[in-house]
């Protein structure tokens, strides 16, 4: 069996006193913990309501002035690549966007990162979300079709051997396009696709080196989707077992169960559940606060909600839903939960600590040792 691997995602939100103070500390701590990969997100703004980013709701707001102040990911990755020469961890973007990023530019950025990291870069990629496109004037119709064309474009450029590329496409036509960056030792960066729906799962099988969904779903649903990915890979003449089964999931750790219960009652942690789809709520006997059939992260637009509106949406979120959506509990509990994902096919688990988003800054900071105990425990699975 392939060794189980673990990665950490850093939020890369501008902090104080330097904008990258927390990101540098996060990277160095991750390296010391022996993680296999380190990831940065690609967002222009947060996926939860900014009206709740206040010290009375979130301890982290006392040290991070804005939850929407995301640092540009490719710039951060270049900075990390310079620091990563000794540690030699895999670096990844989790995940970049085929809506607002032209695929030729993404192909160039990923190839550059692969050269800088000596082949240790992973291109996490997906359709993106409405919140990172529509408010900025980027077209948000047919995101999956746009994604498929973007993937075909990236592969066409990488496979061109420096020859002129001409390709018809409704979104990204190529006319005597040149791509002459070399691959690293004959290998292009691995592409990990954040696929969830049937069409995206098939695209993952056709194009991806890794299957990299996020929540919310169960380990058993993951196994079913992985089967679809592998079937699509076989249909495309690819080796289905060469696709890395990965997963991105948030962690809410605590030294004891009471600490976790308190964290799950915090407004910002509860608000994170708004990006789950309505069918996930239905399993817990609830309706999504944004309405029947709401699709979740892909379509949420929380930027203009006021405080009372945001609070009204989160007040009825069942704690059972939060406990299924997040990996939460004591370090031992969480490692046991991670083992369930392993048993359903996951081989690379990328985690992010949600603990600092609870009301108490002191309790949030206190989750960090527990989080790294989780990381070390997962590495032993």
From TrEMBL:
InterPro entries: F420-G6PD/mer, Luciferase-like_dom, Luciferase-like_sf
Sequence ranges assigned to domain Luciferase-like in this UniProt record: 32-348
Keywords recorded for this protein, A-Z: Oxidoreductase
Family matches, as SUPFAM superfamilies: Bacterial luciferase-like
GO molecular function: oxidoreductase activity
Signal peptide annotation: none
Matches recorded under PANTHER family: 5,10-METHYLENETETRAHYDROMETHANOPTERIN REDUCTASE, PTHR43244
Name listed for the protein in its UniProt record: Photosystem I reaction center subunit VIII
């Amino acid at each position: 069996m392939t060794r189980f691997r673990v990665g950490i995602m850093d939020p890369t939100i501008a902090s104080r006193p330097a904008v990258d103070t927390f990101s540098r500390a996060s990277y160095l701590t991750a390296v010391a913990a022996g993680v296999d990969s380190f990831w940065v997100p690609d967002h222009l703004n947060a996926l939860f309501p900014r009206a709740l980013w206040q010290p009375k709701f979130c301890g982290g707001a006392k040290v991070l002035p804005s939850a929407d102040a995301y640092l540009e990911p490719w710039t951060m990755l270049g900075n990390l690549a310079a620091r990563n020469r000794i540690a030699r961890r895999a670096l990844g973007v989790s995940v970049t966007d085929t809506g607002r990023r032209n695929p030729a530019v993404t192909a160039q950025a990923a190839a550059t990162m692969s050269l800088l990291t000596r082949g240790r870069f992973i291109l996490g990629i997906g359709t993106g979300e409405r919140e990172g496109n529509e408010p900025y004037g980027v077209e948000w119709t047919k995101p999956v079709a746009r994604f498929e064309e973007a993937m075909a474009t990236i592969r066409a450029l990488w496979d061109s051997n420096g020859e002129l590329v001409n390709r018809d496409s409704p979104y990204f036509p190529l006319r005597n396009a040149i791509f002459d960056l070399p691959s690293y030792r004959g290998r292009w960066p691995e592409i990990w696709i954040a696929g969830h729906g049937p069409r995206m799962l098939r695209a993952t099988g056709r194009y991806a080196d890794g299957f990299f969904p996020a929540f919310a779903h169960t380990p058993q649903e993951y196994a079913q989707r992985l089967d679809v990915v592998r079937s699509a890979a076989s249909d495309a003449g690819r080796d289905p077992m060469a696709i890395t089964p990965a997963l991105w999931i948030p962690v809410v750790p605590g030294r004891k169960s009471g600490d976790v219960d308190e964290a799950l009652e915090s407004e910002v942690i509860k608000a994170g559940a708004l990006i789950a789809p309505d069918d996930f709520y239905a399993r817990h006997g609830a309706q999504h606060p944004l309405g029947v059939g709401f699709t979740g992260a892909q379509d949420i637009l929380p930027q203009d909600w006021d405080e009372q509106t945001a609070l009204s949406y989160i007040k009825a979120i069942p704690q059972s839903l939060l406990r299924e959506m997040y990996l939460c509990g004591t370090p031992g509990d969480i490692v046991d939960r991670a083992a369930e994902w392993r048993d359903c096919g996951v081989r690379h688990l990328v985690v992010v600590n949600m603990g600092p988003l609870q009301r108490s800054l002191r309790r949030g900071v206190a989750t960090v040792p527990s989080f790294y105990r989780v990381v070390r425990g997962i590495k032993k699975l």
